[in-house]
Amino acid sequence: MQKYSIFNLVKNALSNHENWDLAWKDPTPKKEYDVVIIGGGGHGLATAYYLAKEHNITNVAIIEKGWIGGGNVGRNTTIIRSNYMHDDNALFSEFGMDLWRKMSQDLNYNVMFSPRGIINLAHSDAQMNVYARRGNSMRLNGIDAVLLNREQVKEIIPMADFSENVRFPIFGGLMQPSAGTARHDAVAWGYARQADSMGVDIIQNCEVTGFDISAGKINGVRTSRGDIKVKKIGLCVAGSTNILAEKLNMTLPIETHLLQACVSEPVKPVLDRVVTFGAGHFYISQSDKGEMVMGGDLDGYNSYAQRGNLPTLQHVLTEGIAMMPFLSKLKMLRTWGGIMDMSMDGSPIIDKTHIEGLYLNCGWCYGGFKATPASGWTFAHTIAQDRVHKLNAGYSLERFNTGYLLDEKGLGTKTWIS
Amino acid sequence: MLYIFCPHCGMRSQNEFSYGGDATVKRPELNKEVSDKDWDNFVYNRKSLRGKHWELWQHISGCRQWIKVERDTGTHEIFNTLKADEEISK
């Protein structure tokens, strides 16, 4: 594989950039693999990459029903952060932050990681207390956190509404300076390219139709492009988890819901941080192209439709305009939807299952993109070693039975309000 | 925009309703020994499949009654609505 470098860029310029290698191949599936990863999104690609890189397992196939990067890895709002309070979430995410910082060098692919910082706004004294507690918990886990008062927030984001007579005045905020954004497509392409170069087969347009299980063990997977013999299968299918669980006779603590996001027309640089509204659910950042990238609540009912309805969009953008009134002047460029694997406590599952050789990676709710490297790394470990790593020990499937839930927001089991 | 037929009030927009989840989940019976597995299935585990789905909605800005709605989770088409105490015919 050609390395991406200034030298190769100049060299290929001489032939009008017509002789670059393909970023990844288009192989036909083999009859047998050591590991099959179902789902060619960010998590599946990262898992295959770390299986090859960390565990030297390269006889691996990624099976993707659509195309690489066509699902949630290409539909998210690209926010990367580790501002969690609970130890299991904080340590896992902070491990991921470290992988993010090295990712462009590691993958030889510019993922445009931009640690611009995230500010969660507070709109009451009580919320400031809650954020102080969260910030302290973060710092105890080695994560940077700064509690900002109203004036400090105003200095950083003067375009927010700091007038006196508003329904949700800004009291301050909690900032994680090392959080940020990255180019989501590049993350998928970078992992795909490196995994492919180490021998992983990326098989697109290939739908899983069934599983070959006997005596509680995985023997193979049936696909629209033929049967494949395999002893270990990793499931990384996000919003389609319930559909494959049905084929496995499993019922999971997961519901599939619809989440919308949108971007405005591009404007000149105005916002150089990620900001979230604290009196509702709205988050915003500005892309390098100048578009304001915005998202918020789920549509609120079980759905597999990758498109949303207007009432939710209106509700979310009302919050945005309450926080930053200038947004009302912008034209909307694009809105879209994706389907989320909402878990019953708002935290993910990376675990073995009762079927030998079947490994589960799901329940990412809104937070799948930022978790891509850490999820791939720990899932690869879980598959290769047949045991969970201490970083994903808290993300067990069993916790819904034992009661060790990881309910970061304390919202209970109504997935549609989390 | 979804339009939901409330059996008490008639056709209304989704703005008047709030969602209540899978309508086929049954709470384990009282005064009976209930296994952990049964509780798990009641509290956490859901099929949540693509296709027809019976679910609860509350007409929160209308008559405030809970109703059952049969809706396709792939297309959002609504086929049928029932009062809360009416049984779903299989």
Account of the 3D structure:
The complex is a heterodimer of chains A (418) and B (90). By secondary structure, chain A is an alpha/beta fold. Chain A is built from ten helices and 19 strands. In chain A, the strands form four sheets. An eight-stranded mixed sheet of chain A has the order 5-6-4-14-15-16-13-17. In chain A, α2 packs parallel to α6, α2 packs across α9 and α3 crosses α9. The model of chain A has no long low-confidence stretch (mean pLDDT 96). Chain B has 90 residues and is mainly β. Chain B has a single domain, classed as 2-Layer Sandwich (Folate-binding fold). Chain B is built from one helix and six strands; from the N terminus they run βββαβββ. In chain B, the strands form two sheets. In chain B, strands 3-4-5-6 form a four-stranded antiparallel sheet, with no helix packed on it. A two-stranded antiparallel sheet of chain B has the order 1-2. The longest helix of chain B is centred in the middle third of the chain and has 8 residues. Chains A and B meet through α7, β13 and β16 of A and β3 and α1 of B.
